[in-house]
Design goal:
Helix content: over 70%
Shape: globular
Number of strands: 0
Structural class: mainly alpha
Distance between the termini: 90 Å
Radius of gyration: 25 Å
Mean pLDDT: 84
Order of helices and strands: HHHHHHHHHHHHHHH
């Protein structure tokens, strides 16, 4: 397939990490990353100016999340990803499974709700529109596991094992749309599971773990399928440029290995985040119970002791 329409040099030298990391910005993602960092920083600044705090950890997570997107979309990795299946798979795994987790831990929606001004009575400003979106039927549907898990799986099998992938890779617009899709799918999949922001679908912690492990194994199976294939499976990467000095099947095996290995990384990160959130939730519940006991003189404990005393009296 001819990628000359993407405006990139087809005679790329053999891939090395040093050749993949130099700056080579995709304008769409460069503007998006700068805008995301700018808006997030502006929101934190608004909170600080009025005397409110914002956790430094959330800022760090969000910034690193944006930088991971820039790493795979605004460097030569994006150029190599057009002609090397293995590099493309790194892009896919990062932008769909690592970047979303980091962005969600930054709680951008919560920041927006706190930073945006409240509109006057009877008016709807940005904050009110955001709240309407969060509570809309649309958000309930796209964050429900019945929707997110099949979408997460289809983004692999229905894309790479059909002509759709080759069609999208045939144009700059299609390639951009595919990468935006990967990011969006990752966000809606991980948001109900471990996102800090409020959302319409927020199951208990046990269900969140089950949702996580309902989707992750399919990434491993997908990687294994690529590694076990005896011929190139994706038309786009069947004939890599001779200047790269690579074999298409060997490169596909590397892509499968990356997909298989990478499926473990988000699982560990999300489980750590879930355990921490679960612990914090239990701590908050315990503190509320203590405050309630202080207010009512621990009436629940007194009632329970009275109940035990009545049972003892009946036994005598």
């Amino acid at each position: 397939m001819d990628h000359s329409g993407h405006g990139m040099n087809m005679d790329l030298p053999p891939f090395t990490l040093g050749r993949g990391l130099p700056f080579s910005a995709d304008p769409f993602f460069l503007i998006g990353c700068v805008l995301a960092l700018g808006l997030y920083g502006y929101g934190v600044l608004r909170l600080r100016r009025r005397g409110d705090s914002w956790p430094v950890g959330r800022m760090v997570f969000f910034v690193i999340g944006v930088l991971t997107i820039a790493l795979v979309m605004c460097t030569k990795l994006n150029d190599y990803g057009m002609v090397m299946f293995s590099v493309h798979m790194v892009q896919h795994m990062v932008i769909s499974m690592l970047s979303p987790i980091l962005l969600l831990l930054g709680a951008p929606v919560t920041l927006a709700l706190r930073a945006l001004p409240v509109a006057g009575r009877g008016r709807k400003g940005p904050r009110e529109l955001l709240l309407m979106l969060l509570h809309s039927r649309y958000m309930k549907i796209i964050t429900h596991p019945v929707f997110t898990i099949p979408l997460f799986i289809a983004s692999l099998y229905a894309l790479y094992f059909t002509p759709l992938f080759d069609f999208l890779m045939g144009s700059k617009t299609g390639h951009l749309a595919m990468m935006v899709h990967f990011l969006a799918v990752g966000l809606v999949f991980f948001w109900p599971i471990m996102g800090v922001d409020p959302g319409p679908h927020r199951p208990g912690y046990v269900m969140r773990v089950l949702e996580l492990f309902a989707g992750m194994p399919f990434h491993a199976f997908f990687g294994i399928a690529l590694m076990m294939a005896t011929s190139p499976m994706v038309e786009t990467y069947k004939h890599p440029p001779a200047s790269l000095g690579i074999d298409a099947l060997s490169d596909q095996n590397w892509a499968g290995g990356i997909a298989w290995a990478f499926s473990e990384i988000p699982s560990v990160l999300v489980l750590i985040a879930l355990v921490f959130q679960w612990y914090r939730s239990e701590q908050r519940t315990a503190r509320r119970a203590d405050r309630a006991a202080d207010r009512d003189g621990d009436q629940d404990l007194k009632a329970y002791n009275a109940y035990l005393a009545s049972l003892q009296a009946r036994g005598q």
